[in-house]
Design brief:
This protein is globular. It has a five-stranded parallel β-sheet. The protein has a single domain, classed as 3-Layer(aba) Sandwich (Alpha/beta knot), CATH 3.40.1280.10. It has 157 residues and is an alpha/beta fold. GO terms for molecular function: rRNA (pseudouridine-N3-)-methyltransferase activity.
Length: 157
């Protein structure tokens, strides 16, 4: 199974990008992982919130296949403990999925079409984080989830 993290925009802060890359590199020992970032919408300042969500939604949906299991990283999604998230990952792997796709939306969230396509929603916290920070937090939790599944000492129970 491939796990993909799909998002909008690049990471401006090199320190955040470096930390994210550390966990992406570590993940390669556990699973096939891809980070795909769609460039920011051009002239977004000339669009209203709904127009921007619509354009971003079209770009996100164009990157999906019919067989993908899609999880939106959404403030109203289900919250897991790290152990609970590892169990979620194990269930998806056991189901024979080809690709599990986690999506971070743009600054205004997701279009209704993206919500309709989603199979699940996941919240990392009730707090709001920058999209760049969410990438780091997510890949770290993904790495932690795999270390839990392997009973490795990274996660102390």
């Amino acid at each position: 199974m491939t796990i993909k993290l799909l998002g909008i925009g690049k990471t401006d802060d090199p320190a955040l990008q470096d930390l994210t890359n550390v966990y992406i590199k570590r993940l390669q020992f556990y699973t096939k992982f891809e980070l795909e970032l769609i460039p920011d919408i051009k002239n977004a300042k000339n669009l209203d919130e709904n127009q921007q969500k619509q354009k971003e939604g079209e770009l996100l949906l164009s990157r999906l296949t019919a067989s993908d299991f899609v999880v939106l990283l959404d403030e109203n999604g289900k919250q897991f403990s790290s152990v609970g998230f590892s169990e979620f990952l194990q269930k998806r792997m056991n189901s024979g999925l080809k690709q599990l796709v986690f999506i971070i939306g743009g600054p205004y969230g997701f279009s209704s079409e993206v919500y309709q396509r989603a199979d699940s929603k996941l919240s990392l916290s009730k707090m709001t984080f920058s999209h760049q920070m969410v990438r780091l937090f997510f890949v770290e939790q993904l790495y932690r989830g795999f270390t839990i599944l392997r009973n490795e000492p990274y996660h102390h129970r």
